[in-house]
Automatic annotation (TrEMBL):
Specifically catalyzes the dephosphorylation of 2-phosphoglycolate. Is involved in the dissimilation of the intracellular 2-phosphoglycolate formed during the DNA repair of 3'-phosphoglycolate ends, a major class of DNA lesions induced by oxidative stress. Transmembrane segments: none annotated. One of its GO terms (molecular function) is phosphoglycolate phosphatase activity. InterPro entries: HAD-like_hydrolase_sf, HAD-like_sf, HAD-SF_hydro_IA, HAD_2, HAD_sf, PGP-like_dom2, PGPase_prok. Its cofactor is Mg(2+). This is Phosphoglycolate phosphatase. Belongs to the HAD-like hydrolase superfamily. CbbY/CbbZ/Gph/YieH family. The gene is gph. It is an enzyme of class 3 (hydrolase).
Length: 230
């Protein structure tokens, strides 16, 4: 139970991978294609699931290190990764149950909405469009739009600025400790989904105001019961 009343949500900022779309299949397919071309061992799905969420550069570097490849292969791997990702983006991905309904409900509230991901912005915009989710967002920002990525608060602070709201009145909905750390440091309210990728850790180890099994189960102030609050 939390004695502090939850702030009203003046804006919603929502993560992409692991929150709106299950993109693990895309990451596994793209890494498989790149590592196959480079003659490197392939990594399994569980490894990729633990490693996504901190941007493509981090994923490639960590995967190269994991298979014992030379770090000097990074530049080639990054170029091949982008080429394959462009081809496969969204092909092995699915929108999570409850996302469409949840976004429709939030959109109907008439408050500004942004998608904020560590994925490169071009891939993020293309994926949202391919999955029919682009129309819900006033702004979409990716990992290469700002100087630093989540868990740094900068992307959230800049997104709030772009939406014209203060961080203290914005709600960040994500799937990982990365999202929560950025939200906490920016001063946003944190909501976490239980079904995404939290670096191999149980999501409820990460402090949040609400944990959701589906996006359409988000409870807004006025609807919140004490037990729904962390
Ligand atoms: O690491 C990525 O590429 C994407 O991560 P995010 O959408 O969960 O921020
Ligand atoms: Mg995520």
């Amino acid at each position: 139970m939390n004695a502090q009343p939850l702030p009203q949500a003046a804006a919603f900022i929502i993560d992409l991978d692991g929150t709106l779309v299950d993109t693990l299949g895309d990451f596994v397919a793209v890494l498989g294609a790149v590592f196959g071309e480079l003659g490197l061992p392939l990594v399994d799905r569980a490894f990729v699931e633990r490693t996504v969420g901190k941007g493509s550069e981090h994923l490639i570097r960590t995967t190269l290190a994991h298979v014992g490849a030379e770090a000097a292969l990074y530049d080639t791997a990054w170029l091949r990764y982008q080429a394959h990702y462009r081809q496969m983006n969204g092909q092995f991905s699915a929108v999570y149950p409850g996302v469409l309904e949840g976004l429709q409900r939030l959109r109907a509230l008439g408050r500004p909405m942004a998608c904020l991901t560590n994925k490169p912005a071009a891939f993020a915009r293309e994926l949202l469009q391919r999955k029919g989710l682009d129309g819900f967002f006033d702004r979409v920002f990716g990992g290469d739009d700002f100087e630093r990525k989540k868990p740094d608060p900068l992307p959230l602070i800049k997104t709030c600025e772009a939406l014209g709201v203060s961080p203290a009145s914005a709600w960040m909905i994500g799937d990982s400790a990365n999202d929560a750390a950025a939200a906490r440091a920016a001063g946003c309210t944190t909501v976490l989904v239980r079904y995404g990728y939290n670096h191999g850790e149980a999501i409820e180890t990460v402090p949040a105001s609400q944990y959701l099994d589906r996006l359409d189960q988000l409870q807004l102030p006025g609807e919140l019961s004490d037990c729904a609050r962390a």
